Amino acid sequence: MPFYLFMPRKIIISLLVIWMLASSATKDYGFQIAKVKYKGGGDWYANKTALPNLVRFCNQNIKTNIDPSDVSIDIGSPELFNYPWLYLTGHGNVIFSDAEAENLRKYLISGGFLLIDDNYGLKPFIVPQMKKVFPELDFIELPFSHEIYHQAYQFNSGLPKIHEHEGKPAQGFGLFYEGKLICFFTYECDLGNGWEDQSMYNDPEEKRQQALKMGANIIQYAFNR
Question: What angle do CA 131, 90, 69 make, to 5 degrees?
Fold first, then answer.
């Protein structure tokens, strides 16, 4: 009988995560991160230059080894498990099928991490869909003392405010599964726009640096959990 049948489930999952990281490795980089495609008509493809710019910043400043290629993946694809860190953004409607919700649930329980970045107007659509993924969980606002704000860079007042939108304060919410933060939702902040090429929105360089540093914190936190 195979030896792994006698191993605890959590150890098997950990080994699978390690295998996924290794299998996603490219010739020159340790792994890739990806943007999530979803149905419903929302612009999942927004912030086209955001992830490559964030990855380059992380590789240069916090010594990660991430492939900067711009990659997107369907929420229901089995290849979702090839990417240990996912980014979901947009302005409009989001719809997960039951199969897609189950796929995302398995991904997150198995060790994956999801950043949801409200590009303005996303909250009323994404929150009900994440409830399909985790009916038993609710988004909880993270205190400013949470570790995600205190990685390589210190954000003692929580998320930086990159774009004004409705002028509300930036907030960071999390889904916790068995005490572990598996999904981070940035609201009224718009980190992704701050990661974009400077020519896209003409943001002051100080704002762009704040956005990139907070993004680096989120990546560093996810891999240090």
Answer: 110
- Token readout for 135 is 């009916």
Options 3.40.50.12140, 3.40.50.720, 1.20.1250.20, 3.90.380.10; CATH for 3-224 is 3.40.50.12140
Eight-class DSSP state of 95? B
User: In which residue are the tokens 């933060």 written?
Assistant: 181
- Burial class of residue 95 (count of CB atoms within 10 Å of its CB; 0-12, 13-18, 19+): middle
User: For residue 5, what pLDDT is reported?
Assistant: 45
What are the φ and ψ backbone dihedral angles of 166, each rounded to 5 degrees?
Answer: -95, 5
Mean pLDDT on 96-106: 98
The tokens for 85 are 């860190």
Mean pLDDT of 107-134: 95
Reported confidence tier of residue 12, pLDDT bands at 50, 70, 90? low
Residue 206's contacts (CB-CB under 8 Å, 6 or more residues apart) are: none
Write out the H or E segment, with its range, that includes residue 141: strand 140-141
Residue whose pair of structure tokens reads 């495609």 in the numeric block: 37
Query: What pLDDT, on a 0 to 100 scale, did the predictor assign at position 30?
Result: 86
Burial 118-152 (b: 16+ CB within 10 A, else e): bbbebbebbbebbebbbeeeebeebeeebebbebe
pLDDT digits (tens, 9 = 90+) for 40-98: 988 898 888 999 999 999 999 999 999 999 999 999 999 999 999 999 999 889 999 99
